[in-house]
Amino acid sequence: MQKSAMIVALSVVLCSVTLARADADEQTFDLSPVAPPTPALKYELLVDPIDQQSGNAATYYQQAFAAWTKDADGSVDKALNAADRDPAAFESFATAAYDKNKKVFDILDAAARQDQCDWQTPLHEMGFRAPLPYLHDMQQMARLVAVHTRQQIRHGKIDEAVASLRLGYGLGRNVASDPVLVSGLVGMGVDDLLNDVLAELMSHPQSPNFYWALASLPRPMISFRHAMEHERYHVFASYPVLAKARLGELSAQEWRVVFKQIDQDMAKFHVTGRPPSTEQAALSLLPQARAYYAQTRHLTAGEVEKLDALAVVGAYCLEQYLTVADDQWKLTSLPYPILLPMAQQLQIPVQAGNPWMNFVAKSFGKAASVFARLDRGFAALTAVEAIRSYAAANGGRLPPTLQNITDTPVPDNPYTGQAFDYTVENDTATLSDPQPADYPLKYTIRIRK
């Protein structure tokens, strides 16, 4: 069943925090003291452009969907659930999942080698009605990749595991290629899952050092600004007549048609809590709409009262929405340490009668935080490998401070714009960030003797 962007957004975006782990980003690393490889990018986590070709990855992913054995979903889920508590069960379920989908991996490899991914989603033509059928399938394939990669790690197949991670990280980037918030969030969920797998690989006794592989990844790995692009224009794509409202005024009859279409859409998508009539709800805002209209059009109150009430209210509602949408969009290009506090301070006007306020990303600040946390995770993994590099060059000792690491510099925390907290006690180092309170980061690091 195809799902529209609106349905997915209502069911997923407003609960976007669930795409990451629920409580904290906590990892424990037991590292072999290994220097970065030569050449530095021997173990890349995305397919090198040198090894790519001109083509559309989405075409290959569609082939992978067709080859996917649906009854493998249960084996994938059971393998993930058993991964940390029942090695024997994990091995059995992981083998079953892979045996049923060997062909999928060949197709995913071909997809990762394409230089673009265009899902050809008709966002400009259909707005929030545009179907996003690939999201669920991509999530399931990412879970399969994670299970198979963990099995390769536990079998000591390090090079094969790195190759599988490349497929997964490429998948995460490609699922986020549509400029839709939910697509970006799903892509981040994929990357977050794979970061757990990479952490397990880094602690394997035979693991190479991934410092330069991590340091050379795109930053951000998935762009918040790109993901928010459709959230800014989807109202106009969904109701094309509104393009005219940006250039001039709509007639009362044009607004009446738009409001009726909103009623039909809300009923079709089973949106709860909607008013019986969008038009009547909007007209409840007539007093403030008339005052706004008089001020912005330089008219007297008497002149505005002679105008059709629906035309005045329609213009007011849309322009209030555009003010909020622009206030969100203007922040998306800022660094997270600046963006996040400003996002928390944004005030979305309470206008129960304004239909367009239902289209505002009310979870904007929370979504921005999730994107920032993913970048923080990549930076923290890079820092762990920098610590490994220092240990390799200094007789297996942990660096007393992060500033002591010079050959493989530790990146700042992109969430705060400052250095990660770092302490050493006995033979254990702790890399951490206590913010945000509902999702702190804590990495415990030890060096093998």
Structure described in brief:
This protein is α/β, with parallel strands linked by helices and 449 residues long.
How would you describe what is shown here?
It is a single chain. With 449 residues, the protein is an alpha/beta fold. Helix content is 55%, strand content 7%. The chain has helices at 5-12, 57-67, 73-82, 87-99, 102-112, 123-126, 134-154, 158-175, 181-202, 211-215, 224-238, 242-247, 252-268, 278-283, 286-297, 301-305, 309-329, 336-345, 364-393; strands at 25-31, 53-56, 114-116, 421-425, 428-433, 441-447. Strands 1-6-5-4 form a four-stranded mixed beta sheet. Strands 2-3 form a two-stranded parallel sheet. Residues 1-20 have low confidence and may be disordered.
Overall tally of domains: 2
Write down the Rg: 25 Å
State the helical fraction.
Answer: 40-55%
- State the distance separating the first and last CA atoms: 54 Å
